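Inputs:
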Amino acid sequence: MAAIGKTILDSGWIAARSTVVPFNGVQLTTTNSPSLGPDSPWMEAVIPGTVLATLVKNNVIPDPFYGLENDSIIDIGDSGREFYTFWFFTTFQSNLSGSQHLDLNFRAINYSADLYINGHYKALPKGMFRRHSVDVTDFVRSDGPNLVAVLVHPPDHPGKIPPENYQGGDHEIGKDVATQYVEGWDWMCPIRDRNTGIWDEVSISVTGPVKIIDPHLVSTFFDNYKRVYLYCTTELENRSNQVAECSLTIQVTTELEGNTCMV
Amino acid sequence: EHLQTEHVSIPAGSKLQHSFNELFFYKPNLWWPNGMGKQSLYNVVVTVDVKGNGESDSWSHLYGFRQLVSHIDTATGGRLFKVNGQPVFIRGGNWILSDALLRLTKKRYQTDIKFHADMNFNMMRCWAGGLAERPEFYHYCDVYGILVWQEFWITGDVDGRGIPVSNPNGPLDHPLFLFCARDTVKLLRNHCSLALWVGGNEQVPPEDLNADLKNDLKLNPYYENIQNENNKSAENFS
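Outputs:
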């Protein structure tokens, strides 16, 4: 039985340019799982981080923040989007009991992605500033590693960088819901991959039949801050096929000294 | 008094929203911006146990009690902030991100934000052309007393200006913009350092986006009513 809670998946990731990987997502997560090696196109990936971060880590490109090295890195406006379309791959173990659920969570991806887990497919829609939480309970297995492959696509409108006057490039990036400094600004060189990548935390979380979603805390103040009320509203999702009778508890503590808490 | 359990029955395969009865605090330690007092934080833990299954899920967050208001001063045109009733002289900096390869670690955020606090800053403005910053960023702003001015993703150079002229109506997909905005608010709203949401950089977003953002971000009337009711009965409070 797996412990309730979150496990961050920030190590063990590998990556490869999509154009040099001869397999699709189903194959990568079933019969042809990738590995590192002298003849392999796969390299250690930086998660969270961008495609450029992974390329810098593996010395495929120079560090763009030194000297004029950024100029030697091909811009997505010249290379095309497929040049910075990358596969990311990792594995994890799970040991769910009958009533437990497992979510695979991406706190942010730029810009969209195709997720494969043990041969099953889920689309991760467009938008740099959105969370993706996928219930993968029906896809995971406890008798071996679970294989995860994520094909990350760059922004739809990466734009082109004019030879002079970097200010916002050709402004195409503004058509997407993504960070806009990446086409360059008066204080910033263009970012060649436009920050494509799995750029924030990836995790798996185990829950029972009921999941807590996005609690909201609000406080109100009276009598010169002597009288204060804390309100908490939360969404709850019952993923089982029977009514869930729940005990819902809220506890507020403050650390007095060391590990001593006041309840 | 700060431990409360309530019973909830959730139909099969469905979602519901539950509001706890309010928790009362007498003179809690307040959270203050850098330079005005301590950054007191309380640990709020929510757990759900399901009959026959035991613990099903839990959630925790460090929460600071602070009342923050701001308004545009008609005399100067500047925005004035008050925290816990006290006016704050804002000393701040513009912020895009700490690493353009987005290798964003807790340690890096801690170092960057402590550095701003050590400079006696009390506010950071997250520019619209950069990131909606991450929870770790906000965590350390909570810890070090930095107020955050967070902008959504509208800049002057992607709204009909620039050479060549940019798309005049913001991002192409307005529902996607609003989806991302709403999800970002849900991600960050419990941080006491979060001081102000701003539609975009030096401008107002397209009319429909602006109207929806303003509507979604206004104070829930429920809390306004509570505030009014409690003010009426304040004299009877023992």
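Remarks. Chain B touches chain A through 102 residues (CB under 8 Å). The CA atoms of residues 199 and 214 of chain B lie 9 Å apart.
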